[in-house]
Amino acid sequence: MMISPPPRSNGSRTLIYHTFPHNCPKRFSVSSYPLKLALTHTDAGSAARAGIFETDHGAVETPIFMPVGTRAAVKALRSRDLHDLGAQIILGNTYHLFLRPGNEILRNAGGLHRFMGWDGPILTDSGGFQVFSLQELRKMTEEGVEFQSHIDGTRHRFTAENVVDTQRAIGSDIAMVLDECPPALSSYDYHRDSMERSMRWARRAWEHHVRTPMPYGHSQALFGIVQGGTFADLRARSTELLMETGFDGYAIGGLAVGEPTETMYDVVSMVAPLLPPDQPRYLMGVGTPQNLLECIARGIDMFDCVMPTRNARNGSVFTWSGKVNLRNASLRDDWDPLDADCDCETCRNYSRGYIRHLFNVDEITGLVLATIHNVRFYLALMERAREEIRAGRYSGWMRETIERMQAEVPKS
Amino acid sequence: MMISPPPRSNGSRTLIYHTFPHNCPKRFSVSSYPLKLALTHTDAGSAARAGIFETDHGAVETPIFMPVGTRAAVKALRSRDLHDLGAQIILGNTYHLFLRPGNEILRNAGGLHRFMGWDGPILTDSGGFQVFSLQELRKMTEEGVEFQSHIDGTRHRFTAENVVDTQRAIGSDIAMVLDECPPALSSYDYHRDSMERSMRWARRAWEHHVRTPMPYGHSQALFGIVQGGTFADLRARSTELLMETGFDGYAIGGLAVGEPTETMYDVVSMVAPLLPPDQPRYLMGVGTPQNLLECIARGIDMFDCVMPTRNARNGSVFTWSGKVNLRNASLRDDWDPLDADCDCETCRNYSRGYIRHLFNVDEITGLVLATIHNVRFYLALMERAREEIRAGRYSGWMRETIERMQAEVPKS
Asked: Nearest Cβ partner of A117 from B76, B350, B367?
């Protein structure tokens, strides 16, 4: 499937970023990188690349998957587990953290790292994605977006500037700009206007970011987010505008929101080559193991998704041979590990039959063990992808791996 | 409060244990201990004692607390956690395991140790306590007790013999005899008849135990359970009858079922000295930290209780200064550990404010962290008790500790 062309009937392509100056304000030195991705290998048969970038909380090897720690915890896990699983960076959700525990508590705690006892890198989204999914509870203006808390109905406003402030209070190593994530089926005009507004917000976010200090003595990078739906010209223009500002890294937003998978791949294929080679590229909210491998092949370095943790709690685990449903009665007498090729604590110590029992009797321990496995699976998938890129075998390995994952899981 | 005397109006004291022979059948050597408690220290100021007994899955130092792993998991924990917390022995519930996953699955798995990935000692109760709490769903006969599953209403029968078989299938290191646990307010006559029946069951259980092999190559001990409510003569007779058979250890059952705490202490004070000094004494289902310390002073060696795990999930944690309610808003800005004197993973890495946040937003991780702390607190309490007994300071330390736990927890 091709990326949608701009509708012919839409006459106006005039862009409105004349307010973007090309010389950006200088940053506070205390709180700035610039963050750079050192590429160590590129794949001959694809756009896949392996690299490393440094944060003040440690280095991150790419391609990387970031487990999602929505409300200051990766669900069912503790920080020690994340270390043991090989997590190099985790994600926090600004929207959720802003509502609970809130900026004041996070400041008093000394930031999210200290609050949640995680001393590795943290990336925070801007909260935009969550706010824009509250269809009934929000009102957008040029200034930002007003919304009602999904918890207690209290009214709040996110602006380009104050989500930077909130992420300063959180103290993430990588912050994201506020953006609108329009519904996949929005019109070209809607996408254009939305993208243009998001790019104005991005510019304001950067200007505010470089003028405000980090309270906790470590640096914070700021990533821009490419928007524009499935429209090639809008994506290209969005990319161009962000690069004029010059962010520490670039995310592709507004995907995995209902569009066909091939369309997502096409947008990634189109946008990634436009981005600077020496800065991280982050595909937000994606996706299945197959999605990750396909998008690595298209030049993406960073991913986050609730899928491994959410699926685990629903009893669905990923293996190198495809998904396994832990509520399947056929597992009750199955004494193999979830995945014989997995090195996680769950697979080294427990059988499918045992974990199926824990799900059958609704034991919390079952949620924990399945989460451990799924997160490890995603992290191990990325480790293996890095190895294959380094060894120059990525494309062939990817095809075999995807094929193997799509095969029927044999009954024991 | 004194132990209730037998009612004067009850004329009959004739006991009906004439069927108990004094020479017991010999055991299968492959599956037998005898289990012996090696006492290392006794306290001068109380009946407290420190010792050690061996099982084929390792030694157990007493006094000991056994975390409760009802359905093949200590709720919210995994086996690695239990090791890290210093658990020396855990408890499994025969009633729950019999219903799910059931004996066949447990046999196919190679027993509970392999099923749940725990290689330390396991004690199983007999299922009696659970069945007798199903007031509406059971029918008692001399043979045993018929009941309906609380899950699906299916009908089952527990007999003195088949609960031994189930515990063989489970493969616990220590099994318990089937007993009736009557309601605390039952009459003397009810308690007498019930105790006598339970003692006949105990005898039958022992005879069946010594005639049946263990399927997994390790030995299994069998403990008798003293019943008799709060009636001194019934307790004494029950103890006498069990000792005539000669079990590997002796439990005191039928307490912590609604009677006043002082009555429980009085029964323990009365029964413990009647039991053999060189075998473990286990007070079933007890209790608070204070209960444990008071009963250690009365000569008890082993305890189990759901309190640390259940309270943790309800947001109530134990500390050396008393209980803390994790839902208390005053903790939101409290950056101290749950207990400054605790060495658990939770207290070494996380603050009250963080754990309060996790409870406030209903994160599973909060249940895990609180459980880790509470289980460690109980195990550390027993470690400290053993040290104090060894140092000859138990009684004074116990008084100070109970006083400190009952003090108001200061607000930070």
From this structure: B350
Region A365-376: what's the mean pLDDT? 98
Burial of A325 (0-12, 13-18, 19+ CB in 10 A): middle
Contact A125, A158 (CB under 8 A): no
**β-strands A122-124, A90-92: how paired?**
parallel
The yes/no answer to whether this complex scores an ipTM above 0.90 is: yes
Q: What is the pLDDT of residues A223-252, one digit of tens each?
A: 999 999 999 999 999 999 999 999 999 999
Both B375 and B337 in one domain: the answer is yes
Q: Are residues B213 and B318 in the same domain?
A: no
Q: What is the DSSP letter of A261?
A: H
B148: part of which helix (H) or strand (E)? Answer: strand B144-148
**Dmax (CA) of chain A:** 67
The whole-angstrom separation of Cα B45 and Cα B68 is 31
| Partners of residue A108 in chain B, C-beta under 8 Å | 333, 335, 353
CB of A229 closer than 8 Å to CB of A179: no
Per-block average pLDDT, block size 10, for chain B (412 residues)? 44 31 42 83 96 97 98 98 98 97 98 98 94 82 93 94 98 97 90 97 97 94 97 98 97 94 97 97 98 98 98 98 96 98 98 98 98 98 98 97 81 44
Catalytic residues of B, by residue number, are 125, 304
Nearest by Cα to A150 from A131, A169, A164, A163: A131
B288 & B347 share domain: no
Three-state DSSP at A65 gives: strand
* CA–CA separation, B199 and A34 (whole Å): 78
What local confidence, expressed as pLDDT, does residue A15 receive? 29
Say if B19 falls within a structural domain.
no
**Whether residue A91 is found in the same domain as residue A106:** yes
Q: Does A74 touch chain B (CB under 8 A)?
A: yes
CATH number at residue A157: 3.20.20.105
Indicate whether A18 belongs to any domain: no
For residue A146, list its beta bridge partners: A139, A157
Does residue A293 sit in the same domain as residue A319? no
Question: For A290-325, how does the pLDDT look when each residue is reduced to its tens digit (9 = 90+)?
Answer: 999 999 999 999 999 999 999 999 999 999 999 999
Domain endpoint, select from B256, B287, B305: B305
In a domain, B357, yes or no: yes
Would you say residue A63 has pLDDT above 50? yes
H helix intervals, B297-363: 307-313, 345-349, 352-360
Q: Which domain holds residue A382?
A: 311-405
Same structural domain, B320 and B275? no
Residues B270, B377 share a domain? no
Mean pLDDT, chain A, rounded, equals: 91
> In angstroms, what separates the C-alpha of B74 from chain A's closest C-alpha?
8
| One domain, residues A329 and A230 | no
Scanning the structure block, which residue is given the tokens 């918890």? Answer: A151
CB of B350 within 8 Å of a chain A CB? The answer is yes
- Looking at the structure of chain B, the number of domains it has is 2
- How close, in Å, is residue B303 to chain A by CA atoms? 23
On whether the CB atoms of residues B410 and B325 are closer than 8 A, the answer is: no
**B260 found inside a domain:** yes
Locate the chain B residue with the closest alpha carbon to A329: B101
Which residues, 6 or more positions from B348, have their beta carbon under 8 angstroms from its beta carbon?
A: B337
Distance from C-alpha of B192 to C-alpha of A52, rounded to nearest angstrom: 75
Q: Partners of B148 in the beta sheet?
A: B155
Alpha-carbon distance A245 to nearest alpha carbon in chain B (angstroms): 37
A289, A305, A321: which is the final residue of a domain? A305
What was the pLDDT predicted at B243?
97
Handedness of CA B13, B19, B24, B30 (dihedral sign): negative
Question: ∠ CA(A44), CA(A47), CA(A52), 5° rounding?
Answer: 95
List the structure tokens of A227. 């928007």
- Hey, is the C-beta of A310 within 8 angstroms of any chain B C-beta? no
Contact B78 A117 (CB under 8 A): no
